[in-house]
Each structure stands twice: as structure tokens, then as C-alpha cells.
Amino acid sequence: MKKSVIISALTIAGLSAGAALAGTMDDVKARGKLNCGVTTGLVGFASPDANGEWEGFDVGVCRAVAAAVLGDPSAVEFVPTTGKTRFTALASGEIDMLARNTTWTFSRDVDLKFEFTGVNYYDGQGFMAPKDLGVSSAKDLDGATVCIQTGTTTELNLADFFRSNNISYEPVPIETNSEAMQQYLAGACDVYTTDASGLAASRATFEDPSAHVVLPEIVSKEPLGPLVRHGDNNWGDVVRWTLNALITAEELGVTSANLDEMAKGTNNPEINRLLGTEGTLGEMLGLDAEWAKRAIAVGGNYGEIFEANIGVNTPIGLARGLNAQWTDGGLIYSPPFR
Amino acid sequence: MTMQTDSAAGNFRLSMLISDTRYRSYTFQLVAMILLFASVGYLISNLIFNLQTAGLSISYEFLEEPAGYDINQRLIEYNSQSTHWRASVVGVLNTLLVAVVGCFFATIFGVLAGVLRLSNNWIVAKIMAAYVEIFRNVPVLIWILIINAIFLVSLPQPKAFKARGGNPPEAEMFLDAFAFTGRGIYMPKPVLQTGGMLVLGIFLLSIFVMFAYRRYARSLLYSQGRDLPTFWPSLGILFVPAIVIYFVIAATGELPIVLEYPALKGFNFKGGIWARGSFVALTFALAIYTGAFIAENVRAGILAISKGQTEAAASLGIRPNRIMSLVVLPQALRVIIPPMISNYLNLTKNSSLAIAVGYMDITGTLGGITLNQTGRAIEAILLLMAFYLFISLSISAIMNVYNKSVAIKER
Prior knowledge:
By secondary structure, chain A is of the alpha/beta class.
């Protein structure tokens, strides 16, 4: 009994021990590895490939940060987290940053004391149903059984959506995306709901994707982005501006193909500031001048990472839509590098 | 030696705290205790310090806020606008439901398997041995997942009960009253009409009278040696009055109790009682897993009674089933009950694995969604620990009372 008290106290104390101490960047540099929290496996966003190498859209952000800070995109320890464990993992210091299609909400930002460093994917919650269910709108779902991933904003949106439309449903809470898919395919629930991007990613892994439809309703705003702990603004800046560098690179036409050429110096001063041939932006962040160049070199600019992992030419087949550059009518917009 | 060192208190020197065997153990215990308290104190102060530097404080105010999420199985009124506290209570009730039903079935499985494992029939004994060894030696989480998957895959889904495009439905309801689906078992629900309460009241009274009769029969056996039959009279007392009153009321007008049958409407069956698939799978898995442990306790208890007892009773001319109920079982229970308590406790605590099949118990509501949506991890976990501690101690207390009633009475 006494022993177990000690152990549990140790666990709690240990959990909170690493928290809230500034100097995450020093820790990362000293460790030589970035601990990055990702999903337990969502194809296109973060999942291990056949060789056990993590790849995906969110993984791309982790690798870009690792390249900017450590100069090595492979110096990342990927920590799979569930919807339930992700915030504890970040708050306790087990991971340095979380890139796990996490929705930026007021309470997570303010009450849970995290700092969202931007939005890398504008998403919304949708529904997926088998075609033979004969449902064409989410409003036809009165009395349906709905699979949801527990510990996410989706279960709150779901409750709001059904309540405001005055229809009933039966929630089936499930811990991870893969378990949810199993239950959905076995028919334990009529529909599956999560972020529309997640639905597309999951559907791409089905044996017969065409037998399932994503319903037209998008019932929520889900701005997904990487986040860090409150209280370490320097580290937050590094993650924020690494993401912004990828976005700005796309806007300015810097790609993995022309990166080396651009890095020799161009007529565009913003490209020069971004790639470190002009100004001291890297130094201000506490990094060297070529930090952004290394970040972009990993998987290309934002658009290239998008197309390679979740774009229309991949099995997931997501169009840019809201996630196009602001110059193309989307919402992806980086503050200037100046 | 004790004579020599047993000197007057006035001769006490400080060094004797180490050198004298009379004081040494106290010294060590004191040192150990100080170290223990110091380390616990350090951990707590470290926790408080870290919480403060992170700008967090321990607060239970979140329990008053609206939960915002829905729960599938609710034994009390609950919707997404209810508070986190109410969501926790819904979870508590769900946990208790699994615990009670699970313990009930675990006892049945366990007693059956334990007795049958001692059977002289080779096949029966070996089958029970296999059951015990297989279920006892695979983690319960695996069993929960396996059994849930079997339910899901082997049983038809509700839409299979629907006729489509002129084809007859793929699955049919059992007796037009029960539907066994991958989403759970739907069964008729008795609904009380006028006069229904009377039937129910009579039935409850019958239960009371039945026990009174059995008590009387027993006292007659002990005091006068008269042996009244108990089985058939008990059954009669239990059912006859309620059935008579039911038909009396039915003859005068409407039926006092009617059944509400489940019927397929839209995506799911509506009406009747719905034992959700998650509940059935979880309860069954916990019961059959714990039953394997109980079987071993029962077997140990019966084997602990020496054969001489049975033979002595037989030589007095007592019939075999009476030997079991009057001689062997009362003594075996003394051996069986204490480990049974810990099995019930284990089952209750193991029910916290419910989220694996999407069953919303207290760990799923308070320790899952509430914790996650509010971010109050330490508060929620402390509350969760307090709850499980309270439930476990309550089960122990109740079972200890029962244990006292079967324990050896010193006369």
C-alpha cells in the first residue's frame, strides 16, 4: 500500500516535473532529437510506411522543424498519441510539439495553456456512410448510430449538431481511428464522423472506397495546426515561423527544385530574407541563417507537402479548397518575413 | 541475555538506540518513517510547485459546467446540456451495472465450472479444466476485444432485418420478440398498466414470505427434527399469488402488465429493452474471465473438506444432496468466500477497460471525455481513484459481513 502511494505520487510528480520549464529549444538541441507527437496512424497525415518510417502531412511539419533546429530531418522521435493522451503528453514535456490534426479552440489555447502556432489545414467535421444506407444528408440521420473518436472536438460538435436539428442519435465512442474504422466496417455504427480530411484519408484505405459516401454537410470549423506549451515563446516562435516559412515559400514560388538556385540570391528581397541571404531573421530566432532553407529542403514548400501526402493525386485525393494560398482564393496566409 | 541488559531506565544512554536490541528496531522504524514522509512530502511539494509555475490550480469547478457531449447508455436522465457531474454519475451507474451483472454471472460460471471440474466424468472435468486455464491465462482486455469482435461479426446488423427490394430479410427476430444484432440484444419490456403495481407488490411480498417459510422450515428441522419440503412450496409461494392476481385483474378488464416489443424503425430497433452490444460483450467477457478464477476457488473450497466428513455424514444415513448442503457446503464456504471478495473487486476494477468496446463507464465519462474536454487531469483522476476506492471498500465490507455469517461460530 505504502509502495503504491509512492509510485502513484512519483508518477504524478514526474508528469508535472518537466512542465512549464522554459528552454525547450536548448533541450531539443542537447538531446539531438525532436520529440514530436503525432496520431497513432492516419494515412496521409501521419502513419508509418512499410519500412516503419513515419510519413504524412503532419509528419512533414515535424521534419521541417527538426531540419530547421537540428539540421537533420530524420532527428525526430515520433510519439504516437491518441485523442485522449495527446495533451497530457505535451503538457508533461514528453513531447516538444504536437502535430496531430488538433483543432485550435479557445479552451485548449487559454484554459489548457497551449500555444497554437498556426493552421496547417482548415478542416470541418463531416459524416461518412455506406452508400447502400441510402442517406444523402446528415439531417436524415435521425436515430442513427454514430461512431466517434473520443476525446476530440467532434463529439461536442456532434452533440450540438443533432441537438440544434432536433434529431436523436446513438453515439459509439471509440479510442483510435483504426478501431473506429473496424467498427464502422463491421456495421456497429451507421455513420462515422470526424474531420472531413480524416474521412477521406480513412476511406482511401478501404477495400472498396466507392461503396462509401461523405455526406455534404460540414458541421463545424476545425482549424488544425501544430501546438506547443504556453510559456516558452521562443520555442513557439520557432515552430510558428517554420510553418510560415513553408507557406511563404509556396507563395513566393520557392520549391524543392529551385531552392538551391534561389538560395544563391535573387532579386526578391523577401525570398532573400527567407532563405537567409539577406537580413538576420534566423539569428533573431536563435538559429542560423539557413534554417528556413533546410526546412523547405525536406519535403518542399507547403503546397508540395500537401500534394505529396494528401493531394488530388494521392489515394486520399483532397483538393486544396480552403487550404489554397490566399492568392488563389484560399485561407492559407503567412505574415510577411520582414 | 535479556536479564543482563534489562537494566533500570536511568541507565539509558543515547548510543543504546543503535547498540541495544530493545531500542534498535524503534530507531530503524522511526528513520524509515521519516524518510518515507520526507519523500512523499517532497513529491507533493514538487507537484504543487510545478502546478503553480505552470499557472494551474486544483479546482473542481468544472463539475458544474455543462458537459456538452452525449452518452449512449444512461440509466438516469442526461443530455449534452447536463453538467460534468451528472455525466460522472451516469458513468458511475454504468460501472455499477456492469459490476453487479458481471459478478452475478461470474458466480454462476465459476460455481458451475468449479463443481464440474471435480466431476467423475472425464470429458466434463477436462473441458472445465481447459476453460479455466484458457480464460485465466489470457489478459482480460484481449478477451473483451475478442468477444466484442465475435458479437459484432457473427450477429446480423439491424438493417439485415429489413426486407429490401422484394427479398425477404436476411435475418428474423426470435419469436418475434427478441432481436440478436451486432449492436446488442433487443428484448420485450414489461410495461405496468393500472393494477400492475399490485401484481408487482404481491410478488415482492411473496419473496419475503418465501424466505420466512424457509426460515421456519429450518428452525423446525433444528428444534424438532421435522423435515418440511422446501423446494416446491418455495416455488409455489413465489409465483402462485402473483399469477392468480394477474389473471384476476386481467379478467376484470385490461391486462395489468403488457409487453412492449422492439420493432425496426429507421436505422435501429426502437422500443423494448436494449442491452447494448458493448455492455453485453464487456459484461460477458468480465464474467467469464472472473468465473475462471472463481471456479478455482470453489474447487479449492470443496477439496478442503476432508473425505471423512462426507463419509461420516453418509454413515449417519444422510442423503447425498443433503450432505452437500448441510455438511460440505457450509464448511467449504468458509474457504471460498475470502478469495471470492477479491475476485468481485477485480471484476469491478477491470470494468474500467470498458472504453475498449465503447462502453461509457466512469473511466469513460469522468476519466475520459470530461478529463479531455476540461483538461483537469489531476482532479479527474483523484476523483476517479476516490470512487473506485469507495466502491471496492464497500464491496469488501458487504462481503465481510456475509463472510462472518458463514465463518466458524465458536460455541
